[in-house]
Amino acid sequence: MPIDSSLTTPHLSSERIQQLISQADSSQLDDQELLEFLQLCNARYRAGNSIISDAVYDSVYLAALQIRYPNHPFLEAVEPEPDKVIAGKTVQLPEHMLSTEKTYSLDGIKRWLARIEKAAEEIGINSDALIFRATPKLDGFAAYDDGTSLYTRGDGRKGTDISRVFERGLIVAGNGIRGQGPGEIVVSKSYFETNLADVFDNTRNFQASIIKEKDLEQPALEAIQEKAAVFYPFAQLPNWSGTATNLIDQFDTVVDEMLTTVDFDVDGVVIEVTDEQIKRHVGATRHHHRWQIAYKSNIETAEVKVLAVTAQTSRSGRVNPVAELEPTKLSGAIISRATAHHYGMVKEQGIGPGTLIELTRSGLVPGPMPCSLTMP
Questions:
Q1: What is the CATH number of domain 90-295?
Q2: pLDDT digits over 181-213, tens only?
Q3: Which of 9, 188, 289, 373 is deepest in the core (most CB within 10 A)?
């Protein structure tokens, strides 16, 4: 796949960035390079043009910064939208719209529940009686509706007025009532695949187009007019509720239901405690509320054809085989290269031009694993 020359930072070339996208390896990055790559990934994601999956961003690159500098300011900030997506005067949001703490495992959920239960004990509340709420985690464009104006999430504290989207005909999902606070601008998956996939690369790209100041393209305007694009208040989302014990006992069922209950892109399940005393007691960091957490199960596979196997030398001098692949979209990113681990594996499994492999991308590093090998 040709190198995207627009992907550059002061300390990272296009070629180096492409390597980081395809191999998901932070070990050779110095601190400044790591920070610049994180900022680039975040900006592209917010602009609707993701270059890596959420799982790789969180578990490889963000995790590397957390290990090196647990108190780094980047980890405590809500990244604002890029200027090219939203321009205009910023205003104070009626309430903070922070990011959400994430976990990719049931153990992570259990640890969070233990923290909530400990907080309940600290203020004399029976933790066994606490009720938790689970909702789909919409993968849209976050905004806040105060009933008069609609604001972008911005940096979590100040946002930009985008009330023009309602003037263009955008409706409120659920009961249709304005002023329900935080939510997301989303578009129906089925409508997108049928009517918009040939115009926009992905739904986030479409969502970003809706809020721009310029006149809308006709397909975007039609999506609004046909009520396929909406502002969905979090308060109106379908939900599950129950005790911590109920949640753990029914976890897989709850997750499956929440991931499939709406016809919009969903990239996880948000779980929160409903007790207002607990919420006030645990509070928030500058980055996220402590009374909620998102569970994200980011495992995706695709069968792809190997075009070639090439050698790549790392900065330490180690030579690794890299599988050049037919460009394939996986977990929101275009994958064209993947590390083949070592040459012994390549030889043993017969990986070469024309081989079909199963490419797996999860909360770990992407890499090829032989499926039923089919030689040309």
A1: 3.30.470.30
A2: 999 999 999 999 899 988 887 787 788 888 887
A3: 188
Classify each residue of 48-78 as buried b or exposed e, where b means 16 or more C-beta atoms within 10 Å of its C-beta: bebbbbbbbbbbbbbebbeeeeeeeebeeeb
Specify whether the backbone of 341 is left (phi greater than 0), alpha (psi in -120 to 50) or beta.
Answer: left
Q: What is the pLDDT of residues 13-41, one digit of tens each?
A: 888 888 888 777 888 899 999 999 998 88
Q: What is the CATH number of domain 300-370?
A: 2.40.50.140
Q: What value does the CA radius of gyration of the chain take, rounded to a whole number of Å?
A: 22
Domain map (residue ranges) of the chain: 14-76, 90-295, 300-370
Q: What is the DSSP string of 93-159?
A: -SS---B--EESSHHHHHHHHHHHHHHHHHTT--GGG--EEEEEEE-SEEEEE-SS-EEE-TTSSEE
Q: Which of 137, 227, 296, 347 is labelled catalytic? A: 137
User: Does this model's pTM top 0.90?
Assistant: no
| Residue 296 annotated in active site | no
